[in-house]
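thread: overnight batch results

M.L. [08:02]
morning all. the overnight job finished for the chain we discussed friday. pasting input first so we're all looking at the same thing
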Amino acid sequence: MTKLIEWAPVVRDAEGWYRHPDMPEFDEDQEAEYRAWLAAQGLDTTYASLESEDDTHPAHIAYFDQAGMDVSDWNPAPPAGEGWFTLSIHDSEDGPYWVWGRREQAAQ
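M.L. [08:03]
and the structure it wrote out:
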């Protein structure tokens, strides 16, 4: 039986990144495996992108304008609704993403 991931406190590293302690690590070329894991977990996901923040946001400036890796000043508002918890704050080819998940039944 698959252990279902649950809420955990978000403890970010020194540069503001985070991966839920019960979430497997997926590489960018493992989209199919990631989607299969989400389905097995029964999770809906949503995300925020640092790129979509105002270009005057301190984390946006540090990351995109100064080529830094510190996103600890970035704290987007969580999605509306019940049951959301943070899965990851990670870097990608398109810049940093904050990913939330919740059980599919919580969405109903």
